[in-house]
Hints:
By secondary structure, this protein is an alpha/beta fold. It is built from eleven helices and twelve strands. It folds into three domains: 4-87, Arc Repressor Mutant, subunit A (Orthogonal Bundle), CATH 1.10.10.10; 93-165 and 266-303, Periplasmic binding protein-like II (D-Maltodextrin-Binding Protein, domain 2, 3-Layer(aba) Sandwich), CATH 3.40.190; 168-256, D-Maltodextrin-Binding Protein, domain 2. A five-stranded mixed sheet has the order 4-3-5-12-6. It has a three-stranded antiparallel sheet with strand order 10-7-11, covered by helices on one side. It has a two-stranded antiparallel ribbon with strand order 1-2. Helix 1 crosses helix 2 (19-26). It is elongated, with a radius of gyration of 30 Å.
Amino acid sequence: MLSEEELALLEAVRESGSLSRAAAKLSKAPSTVSHTARQLETRFDALLFDRRGYRMQLTPAGLLLAEEAGRLMQDVSRLTQRVRQVASGWEDRLWIVTDEILEFETLIPVIRDFDALESGVKLRLTNEVLGGTWEALRDGRADLIVGATNEPPAIPSLSWFEFGVMEWVFAVSPRHPLAKVKGALDRAEISRHRSVVVADSSRLSSGRAYGILGGQAALAVPSMRAKILAQREGLGVGWLPRQRIASFLKSGELMEKSTTDPREPNVLYVAWRSGHEARALEWWLEQLRQPQLSKRLIEGIDNRN
């Protein structure tokens, strides 16, 4: 490993092309700089400085040493910062998994506020669907999950709180055949038309998809936003979050239809493994307990004022 003084000498020679100018740049005597240069060559048993000609240059070996040493110095600096960061109570990394029912865009202001803390914690945000969200926490692919649905499963050291309630609307495009049906839709009527679904992302279970009736055709899409857009375009029917499609219902781009079998609202949860709460996790939990934030996340970006 090179010292900061030796690395500075290599950089100064590369930039100035002269031992004397490098010495002046480093505020050192030329004899001192020359001695340091000879010591470097002796230690590596290699010619590092090309002293021929008018300009002094680093040899290919010298250039390699300067570049690699610079990279190693940066790595050491970053490692030092990470050690100090963890020693002061911050995590090295925080992995947040949101259920796909929530939109990433609504978290951007929270991420900006977290960045303002200058904690150094590396954030990783991914999403899962239905059972896949709980599974991510259980399998160590998440430090914190947000918006998980259904009752909390049996996970060691699980801590959780209710984040909010998601209400559902059976919605169709005004151009869809079901839009013209009078009265409440029954299962037989609905099953004759294709359903749009976002499939469960669970790795270990067979997963599930809400809203599919026996024998009903289905269009599987990658996200709730895609499901909303597909149903708005008349590509299928299904249950959609009331808060997320309020603007579409108001504009008439989607129609709410009553059904003989209404869908119950879903309670959404925030969950984590207790016993290892460091400062970043505690900060996020504090934010997520604020009613204004949960309301914004549940409503989505389409209905922000």
